[in-house]
Amino acid sequence: MLKKIIILVFVTCFACFNTVFAAESGGMPQLNPEFWISQIFWLIITFGILFIVLTKVILPKISDNLETRKSQILENIETADKQKEESQKKIDEYEKIILESKIKAKNYFNDAREKILEDINKKRAALEKDLDEEISNTENELFEFKESSGDKVTKIAAETSAELIKELIGEGVNSSSIAAIVEDQAKMNKERKDVI
Amino acid sequence: MASNPMYQFNVYRIGPEIKLGSVDISFTNASLFMVISSLAILIIFNLGAKKKTLIPDKLQLLSELSYSFVAKMISDTAGSKAKPYFSFIFSLFMFVLFCNMFGMIPYAFTVTSHIIVTFVLAAFIFVGVTIIGFMKHGLGYLKLFVPSGVPMVLLPLIVVIEIISYLSRPISLSVRLFANMMAGHTMMKVFGGFVISLGIVGGWLPLSFSVALTGLEILVAFLQAYVFAILTCIYLNDALNLHH
């Protein structure tokens, strides 16, 4: 359907074309030489002026503009490169400084730690020594006390026994014999304890 | 009659009749549009070249882009030897382009749709290129007609063909531009006439055709200016760098 319409339109178009060209009888105005000389004359004048002004005035300006822009851009790129290099140098320097200071800080830290450790060790050694001394003293004291306590107990027992006997019997008994008996008893107790 | 599609190409006198001796050099509508095109080029490019800013504004960008466009076209086709002819080819390209483009304005006159104008331009190019060729290479320029690697038997025929093709250059160059312009404008006029004659009912199709043709004609206007300039470059290349 659409095709048919398009074909129909084309056919009418060509028909119109034919009628239009049939109506035209003068031919192409381009081939009428009446104004040829005038056209050539004005073409030479206008194109000549255009060419001369463009060549002498305008194109050198545009070319200059382009050249200056090019050189300026190149210059800018150069400076940018230089600055980049400089900044890279600076960055390297900074990095070096930072690295050095880091190492320094590490050293300080290590020194301090060593010092502290040493201090701690020294103090600990002193403390341990003190403690050992104290312990051995106490042990000695305890030992002595233990040693002396046996005799004292016997003595107290003898005295108590003597007092008791005195109260019970009503007269004094030879204290040395009482002591001997108490000692025997104590020895027996001790032996029993050991056996147990 | 206004409905005649060829009517738009009529040249008529504007103002008084100017005579130089017995020759009529009156100012016509064709002259008017030549002047308008040249003035437009000069004004636009002068404004574009005036400011020297690092970052170009619109007109400056336009002029600089045109400059580099033509410069690239020349260096691509004719090499670095063609640099002295840059301003001529630039003027030529811009003149043809602006004449074509001004022709696209309704009721405007298309200067390049006249064979005499394009033929004078093409003949000037032809004569100029031939003179440059003989100046650069002397009689050696005639080697252009003798391609290398052709068998001796065929040589006379080839030389004749080459000479004919060389001599037909101005004709082909001028007729190409003139015929393109004339055909395009005639077509547009014809389709515009259809819009009127078919009226509100059937006029829509030729109207859409007319719209499409306008776009096409703007493209052709640019393309033909480009072709005209690039063929000039190619002829110049033949004259400057003799290949055979």
Structure description:
- The complex is a heterodimer of chains A (196) and B (244).
- Chain A starts with a helix and ends with a helix.
- Helix content of chain A is 90%, strand content 0%.
- Chain A is rod-shaped and about 185 Å long.
- Chain A is an all-alpha fold and 196 residues long.
- With 244 residues, chain B is mainly α.
- Chain B has one domain.
- Chain B has seven helices and two strands.
- In chain B, a hairpin with a 2-residue loop joins β1 (19-20) and β2 (23-24).
- The mean pLDDT of chain B is 90.
- Classes of the chains: A mainly alpha (196), B mainly alpha (244).
- At the A-B interface, α1 and α2 of A face β2, α1, α2, α3 and α4 of B.
For the structure shown, list the relevant keywords.
heterodimer; A: 196 residues; mainly alpha; 3 helices; rod-shaped; B: 244 residues; two-stranded antiparallel ribbon; 2 strands; 2% strand; globular
Annotate the secondary structure layout.
The complex is a heterodimer of chains A (196) and B (244).
Chain A: H1 2-23, H2 36-169, H3 175-195
Helix pairs in contact in A: 2-3
Chain B: E1 19-20, E2 23-24, H1 29-50, H2 58-78, H3 86-103, H4 115-137, H5 155-167, H6 169-202, H7 204-240
Helix pairs in contact in B: 1-2, 1-3, 2-3, 2-7, 3-7, 4-6, 4-7, 6-7
Average pLDDT for all residues of chain B: 90
Overall tally of domains of chain B = 1
Measured distance between first and last alpha carbons of chain B: 54 Å
Summarize model confidence as the mean pLDDT of chain A: 83
Helical content of chain B, roughly? 55-70%
Count of distinct strands of chain B: 2
Radius of gyration based on Cα positions of chain A: 67 Å
The first-to-last residue Cα distance of chain A is: 133 Å
Alpha-beta content class of chain A? mainly alpha
Summarize the structure.
Chain A is mostly helical and 196 residues long. Chain A contains 3 helices and no strands.
